[in-house]
C-alpha cells in the first residue's frame, strides 16, 4: 500500500506538470483591448507607453545621482507637466499611465475616423512612414526589441500619424468639411507670422567649434553694421530683395569669417542669406512670452527697416516685410504648408477629445502584463 507521503508527492508532480504545460501554451496578450471598437495591439500600447515614459522622465523630480534611465526612480518620482491642456502633478507611474491612455485614445480616434471617412493614404505617405521606421529601427531597434516593440508596430504608429494628416486635410483643406478661407490665412499671416529677410553672421568658428572672443566679436559686429548700411541703400523696397540680400552675404560673410581665422568662398556665403515666413512655432524657439529675441528687435525697428540682432551664437542683419507685397496666399501656402501650421493643434485637440469620448473596453490584466515597471532603457 502506497504511503500518504507518496500520494502527495505524486499529486504535487501532477500539478507541476499541468502548470508547466499551461505555461507552454500561454503567451503574452496580443492586444490590450479596444477603444471605440478599434483594437489596440500590444505593440502599439507598448510603444505609446515607452514614449510616455520618455516624456515623464523629462519632467520628473529626480534625486541627485538618479537619471532618466532609472525606471524605478522615475516611476516613483513626482512628475509635473501638462496633459490634455491641464497642469498635472502626479507620481511617475500615474503620469505615464495618463499619457499612455491619452496616446492610445488618439490612436483609436484616428483609426476610427479615417475608416469612417474612407480616408486613403497615398504612396508618398506610406513610403515616408516606412522610411522613418527604417531610420528609427536602425538607431533604436535593439532598445525597441528589448521593450517588446516590433518594427511593424513602429511603422503602424507612423502610419497612424500619416492618417491624422489626411484627416487634417479632410477637415480643414480646400475640399474639407470646414475649409480654411483666404481671409483666415491672411489674418494668420499678418498677425501671427513674420516674414523676415536676414544675413547671418556666425559667432562660432565651425572649423574649431570655438566661440568668437571679444575682439573677434567686435570685428564681426562692425562687419554686420557695414552690411546693414549697404542693405539700407540697396534693399529699401517693400518687396522681397533676394538679389541684394545674396550680394550682401557674398560680400560681408566671408569678411566676418576671416575675423575668426576662417575662410569662406563667396559662393558658399549665399547660404547665409535667408528670406522666409516664420510661423508661431518657428518664432517660439527664440524666446518666451515676456521677450522674444528675434521678433522684439524687429518690432522696435519697424516694418521694412534693417537692424542688427545678437542671438548669442549668431548676429543677424534683418528686417521684417509684408509678404503680400510679393506673394499671394496661394504662393505662401504652397511654400510653407500653412494649413498644417494653422490647424495641426486644432485637429489634434479634436482627435484627443474624440478618443476620450469613445467606449473603452480595455483589458486591465493585459495592461498589467505590460507594466511600465518592465520598461528597459539600456540594452
What does this structure look like?
- Keywords: Signal.
- This protein is α+β, with helices and mostly antiparallel strands.
- It folds into two domains: 31-178 and 350-374, no CATH class; 193-325.
- The chain is built from 15 helices and eleven strands.
- A four-stranded antiparallel beta sheet has the order 8-5-10-9.
- The longest helix has 25 residues, at 92-116.
- It is globular, with a radius of gyration of 28 Å.
- The model is unreliable at 1-26 (pLDDT under 50).
Describe the structure concisely for a colleague.
Helices cover 57% and strands 15% of the residues. The chain is an alpha+beta fold and 379 residues long.
Number of helices: 15
Strand content: 5-15%
Number of domains: 2
Main sheet makeup: 4 strands, antiparallel
- Major β-sheet strand ordering: 8-5-10-9
| Ends apart, CA distance between termini | 57 Å
Protein name: Foldase protein PrsA
Signal peptide: 1-27
Keywords: Signal
SSE layout:
Layout: H1 4-25, E1 31-35, E2 38-41, H2 42-59, H3 71-76, E3 78-83, E4 86-91, H4 92-116, H5 123-146, H6 151-172, H7 182-192, E5 194-202, E6 204-205, E7 210-211, H8 214-234, H9 242-259, H10 266-269, E8 273-278, H11 280-284, H12 295-301, E9 307-310, E10 314-321, H13 329-336, H14 338-357, E11 360-362, H15 364-369
Antiparallel strand pairs: 1-2, 1-11, 3-4, 5-8, 5-10, 6-7, 9-10
Helix pairs in contact: 2-4, 4-6, 4-14, 5-6, 6-14, 8-9
Amino acid at each position: 500500500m502506497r504511503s500518504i507521503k507518496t500520494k502527495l508527492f505524486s499529486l504535487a508532480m501532477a500539478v507541476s506538470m499541468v502548470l508547466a504545460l499551461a505555461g507552454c501554451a500561454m503567451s503574452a496578450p496580443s492586444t490590450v483591448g479596444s477603444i471605440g471598437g478599434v483594437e489596440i495591439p500590444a505593440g502599439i500600447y507598448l510603444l505609446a507607453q515607452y514614449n510616455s515614459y520618455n516624456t515623464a522622465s523629462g519632467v520628473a523630480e529626480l534625486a541627485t545621482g538618479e537619471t532618466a534611465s532609472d525606471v524605478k526612480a522615475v516611476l516613483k518620482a513626482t512628475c509635473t507637466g501638462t496633459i490634455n491642456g491641464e497642469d498635472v502633478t502626479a507620481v511617475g507611474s500615474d503620469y505615464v499611465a495618463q499619457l499612455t491612455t491619452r496616446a492610445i485614445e488618439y490612436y483609436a480616434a484616428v483609426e476610427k475616423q479615417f475608416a469612417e471617412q474612407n480616408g486613403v493614404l497615398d504612396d508618398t505617405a506610406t513610403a515616408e512612414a516606412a522610411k522613418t521606421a527604417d531610420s528609427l529601427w536602425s538607431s533604436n531597434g535593439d532598445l525597441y526589441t528589448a521593450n517588446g516593440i516590433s518594427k511593424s508596430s513602429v511603422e503602424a504608429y507612423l502610419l497612424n500619424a500619416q492618417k491624422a494628416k489626411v484627416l487634417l486635410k479632410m477637415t480643414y483643406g480646400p475640399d474639407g468639411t470646414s475649409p480654411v478661407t483666404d481671409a483666415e490665412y491672411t489674418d494668420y499671416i499678418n498677425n501671427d507670422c513674420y516674414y523676415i529677410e536676414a544675413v547671418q553672421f556666425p559667432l562660432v568658428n565651425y572649423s574649431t567649434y570655438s566661440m568668437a572672443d571679444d575682439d573677434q566679436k567686435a570685428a564681426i559686429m562692425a562687419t554686420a553694421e557695414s552690411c546693414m548700411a549697404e542693405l539700407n541703400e540697396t534693399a529699401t523696397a517693400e518687396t522681397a530683395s533676394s538679389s541684394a540680400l545674396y550680394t550682401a552675404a557674398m560680400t560681408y560673410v566671408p569678411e566676418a569669417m576671416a575675423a575668426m581665422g576662417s575662410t569662406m568662398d563667396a559662393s558658399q556665403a549665399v547660404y547665409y542669406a535667408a528670406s522666409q515666413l516664420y510661423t508661431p512655432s518657428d518664432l517660439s524657439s527664440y524666446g518666451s512670452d515676456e521677450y522674444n529675441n528675434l521678433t522684439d528687435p524687429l518690432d522696435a525697428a519697424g516694418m521694412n527697416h534693417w537692424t542688427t540682432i545678437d542671438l548669442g551664437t549668431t548676429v543677424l542683419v534683418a528686417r521684417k516685410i509684408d509678404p503680400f507685397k510679393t506673394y499671394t496666399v496661394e504662393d505662401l501656402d504652397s511654400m510653407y504648408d500653412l494649413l498644417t501650421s494653422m490647424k495641426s493643434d486644432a485637429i489634434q485637440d479634436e482627435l484627443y477629445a474624440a478618443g476620450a469620448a469613445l467606449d473603452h473596453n480595455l483589458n486591465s490584466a493585459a495592461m498589467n502584463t505590460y507594466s511600465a515597471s518592465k520598461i528597459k532603457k539600456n540594452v
